[in-house]
Amino acid sequence: MVFNTKRCTLALLILLISGCTSAPKNHHASHIHSGAKIPEKTLFSVSPLISDHLLFRGAFESAVQEQDYSVMYMGGAGIAGIIAEIATHGMLESNSQNSKAKKAQDIANEALIPIQPAIEMLDSASALDNVIDSNPKLIHLSAKKKKPLLELRMQPMFFVDQSYSTLSLKNIVSVQERHQKNKPIYQNMVEIVSLLPEGLEKENTDGQLQHLQEITQQQLADSVSLALKDAMSILNKSDAMQTFRYAEYGKYSYERASLIEKSCSRVIIRTLRKWLKSRPVELFPDMKNSLEKKCSETNHETTKVETTVTKKTT
Amino acid sequence: MTYPGADCLLCWGAAAAMNSSLSSHAETIDASELYQVKADIADVLTKQGKTVVIIDKPLDLDTLADHSSKIPNTSDKSFTQFANASDVTHLVVLDVNYIGFQRKYAAYIPTSDPYARVAARAFLVDTNTNEFHWYLPLNIMRPATGEWDEPDTNFPGLTNALYQALAQARESITTPLAAQQAIKAPPTGNSIELDPSNTSENLSSNPVAE
Asked: In total, how many domains does chain B have?
């Protein structure tokens, strides 16, 4: 009897402490940032991507599906009733959030149908080759000329907006010592958003493939370039936080962040999670006009970040 | 930070202990960004051709004299002192009730993740008649963006959600006011004062008027 009471009390305490568990979230939305300064002259070998093809998903507003659903199941009297109450509530809530998230993702993925044939032709090997060719700090894993000590890994995921207005790359970039399985020396999430050419979904597969190839390769190259600059601590280190307003999912979103770079074509910010986000100026209504005016006067770029994709697509 | 549903004293204590790090973090957040809405409103009204005077001093609505009237949409507080003192015909008031985080409970048990909340009301009142010409209640709740339980990094998901709610509140106030031509606007040249009635502007430490 004593043993049972102890067991019940322990179970109750665990449940009380944990309360309702949140629904598991996409690893691309989890907190990822760790870093130490890496010397600027370092060379990096690049690991191949896990998938043979670039991974695409439909984009949807995650904040909507992450709302709480707090209906409490009322259990019976006594300690058993309370345990049943908590367990049932936790299970119902978790299932509810999981199924809603899955449903929202399935609906969002339907946006990919018109461009699915082109997506299936985008192979990750050639995308990776392009990334390596575009950055002198990167060399192929198989290269024997120089032996880099550090290895760069990435987990890219592309998100297509429901209205085909933007393509977002969320790339988890990590750097670690070669052949080591310990914690990465540097890890961060870099998001690159680019405008899609108008009417992409109506183009033929060849046209779609060409656009998507250009944009995805540029986004991958930009994300790696940004991550490496961050790892080497050569990005602007402004601590002044402000709330940025930008267009997303057909309305305005807000993000608390610090400004890293502002150019005639792109705005790069560092979020509260230290993630790096690069977005076209066109998506920032509060900056667009002043930047356009400034850029038309000076007629030259002030940025260090390559922005050819935006130029091509706008 | 408040815990709706944690109704007994012991329940509240357990909830407060469970969320102590988030509660401490809430105290460090600077919410003064919301009060920049005064400048936004002044800008909107100036563009509509009205003379605007910004009052920097906070106003405690409880200190105003009570007012009763049979006219609908009339304030239960009297704002006539502003008309008498400075020829102000209308007053825009931002009454902030809550800025912070909340987590729902059923007695001892949390039934939701914490979320950011901004509750306020904004109104335009005629200082002669105490009649509301515009009234906007705000109750903005935002879930954390991504994970919420990240105390080691100062709860970035929830902090961002709070700033999103503050920005959304600012926009919710200025957007309809900018489009508001149907109100009985004062004739051009008459002045409007902007008053932030921030009777409970401190983060999370105030009781919530649900």
From this structure: 1
